[in-house]
Amino acid sequence: MRVLLVGSGGREHALATCLARSPGLTALYAAPGNPGMASVATLVPLKADDVAGLVQFAQEQKIDLIVPGPEAPLVAGLADACAEAGIPCAGPTKAAALLEGSKAFTKDVADAAGIPTARWERFEEEAPAIEFVRRRGAPIVIKADGLAGGKGVVVAQSVEEAEDAIRRLGMPLVIEECLVGEEVSLFAFCSDDKAVLIGAARDHKRLGDGDTGPNTGGMGAISPPPAFGREMQEKALDIMVRPMLAEMVRRGTPFRGVIFAGLMLTSEGPKLIEYNVRFGDPEAQALLIRLKSDLLPILAALAQGSLEHAAAEFSDEHSISLVLAANGYPDAPKKGGRISGIERAEAVPGVSVFHAGTKLVDGILVADGGRVLTVCAKAATPEEARKLAYEGASAIQWEDKIFRSDIGL
After folding, report:
1. What are phi and psi of 302, to 5 degrees?
2. What share of the chain is helix, strand, coil (3-state, %, to 5)?
3. Cβ distance 100 to 147 under 8 Å?
4. What's the pTM value of the predicted model, to 2 decimals?
5. pLDDT for res 372
6. Hey, how many other C-beta atoms are within 10 angstroms of the C-beta on 58?
7. CA distance 167 to 1
8. Residue-wise burial string across 336-345, b where 16 or more C-beta atoms lie within 10 A, e elsewhere
9. Cα separation of 385 and 45, whole Å?
10. pLDDT-derived band at 391, boundaries 50, 70, 90
């Protein structure tokens, strides 16, 4: 099969690594890709949200399957354009991608499907939103209703912080109660009203140690999460995913692709935080380094609406992904710093390094984003995986790198 992988982050580098192992792969292209992916894929200078350009390239190169990594092209209608061109795409339509494209849409679907979630309100104007948080108090969660690249959620610890978030994020907004508990990420392959469990991870969203500082796109993840084994994951699918899929079918906008359900394990039971319509980042990196199955036939069948091959097998190992970000992330990350030592890091047993915000300048690898690299490790125990990941991270030399020291604790 000739495959076009869309995206340029650590998630896409991990997907590319898995796809490149498939005996059924003839050619792998990545648009736009990143320097780390160049060893397993041919890089294509097309932006991930250039839907028309991606489809044209796929037609010219006789692509058999498009694998979307990030959410933006899906929300922009990539799967719809692929369907019109007769190109299989392993992702949902624009209408179904609203599950990530609109927080209010997700809340409406969850309420209609009887899925437990936080109490919420949607606001179109600033004044009523501010009046609402003053009346409700803090902590309280402020969410941009549309896509925000992982920077559209503020867990405000004070009314003043909530008001600042309302003014900064702009309208429309969803404001909801702050759920308390352990957060987990649940993944499944889905088609129409059916879902097959992939697995679960636990993401660390806050920038600083001890879950302090601003929310980010994710600073690290572990898989599998403790106290959330396969039996609990299957039960969570019955509560959080399958009713949503049935509601989407009822609305005439069935979902096909990978669903990521962000859950909070509260004292009252699991509650839905959000849906994402693709693999998470950095959760995908932690999950996929444990994958034993051939990913290509799974995604190819999924693009045709079949879950026949979707029972993916993972190793029993524990894994961790550790994000190395640029100083100043998430607001104003420093760019241009020279990076070295990735080869030394990957010489550590069980360690893989995935690129995200990197580029080559005159043959020199430099930082070109907020989340720049993801150092991953797998081992027989969580403690050993954590030790190896931090050993790998310490081998990478880069003046502006920052990372949490408590991922996996």
Report:
1. -60, -40
2. 30, 30, 40
3. yes
4. 0.95
5. 98
6. 26
7. 48
8. ebebebbebb
9. 35
10. very high
